[in-house]
Amino acid sequence: MKKKEVLVLEDLLGSNKKIASEIRNKLKERGILTINFLSSPGAGKTSLLEKIARRLKPQYKMSVIEGDIETERDADRIRAQGIPAWQITTGGACHLEAKMVGKILSQIPSDSDFLFIENVGNLVCPASYDLGESIRCVLLSTPEGDDKPKKYPKAFSTSQCLIITKSDLSSTLPFDFDRAQKEAQSINPQLHTFITSAEKEKGVEELANFFLSSLKNLRKKNA
Amino acid sequence: MHELSIVANLFETLKEKAREKGAQKILMVKLKVGALSGVVPEFLETAFDSYKKGTLASEAQLKIEKVPFRIQCQDCQTEMTRNDFVLICSQCGSTNLKTLSGTELLLEKIEMEVE
Fold first, then answer.
1. Structural domains of chain A in order of their starting residue, each with its CATH number
2. Contacts of A15 in chain B (CB under 8 A)
3. pLDDT > 90: percent of chain B
């Protein structure tokens, strides 16, 4: 018997990254813009999605993947709008992984314009898992507080968009929009920020327009 | 607690590497964990200890090297460690920075017992 040291240098999330990049290529080829929504539970991912859907639906085809630990509730809310939705129930796992999305991929209508993925409500674990999205959005609701970006840096540093939700509640809460934005941008200077209220339908149009221009860019690159 | 699923993947790799090298036993596993990798080293240790039972790595030691978040200013070239992950140069205030380390989550090496 002898000891042998083997140098590996392998990424522990390598297999997820590999699947994610295959998913990203396939969806891009089909001209589908994929958006991954990350937030803590109750930040308003589904409510915002419902409002975005209402705005995009008349002209564009959307598909939605919902991630939750249990229940079909969120997928049912999306289906109620006539939009195809797939619910992934993780049965306890705190995040979605690329292989879970990969299993559904063949069912996503190939004439979709947008694929929205609503991750499991959790500001920590989902940040480590690339799902093959083109745009990652982190949602921060005003009741959570403006000090979250530095507490959960990975979610904010790996996202392209910061969407502040429930802005209509800010009059009764000590939420400083400027502080939240500055803190998030100090970790991620390229971050686009949107201030929204699904309840009052504020900021939804700007966000939908951002997704539309990103879709156009993706298709321009394909052409 | 995604550390469990990371350790599950790690054991797949360990099994594969041990088979490749014809190893009887895994003695040591060394990981590199960046400060902005999104995982907690202590949770990796706990998960590793429960996973290793009954495997080739049942007596293996897990070593974790914590890697700080290091950045370099692309304007004044200063290198710095930022424990708060802020991408602003502490020397000149530039936001044009390059990440040098701290986002990695690597299986660096394995020590095995071979015939």
1. 20-222 (3.40.50.300)
2. 9
3. 94
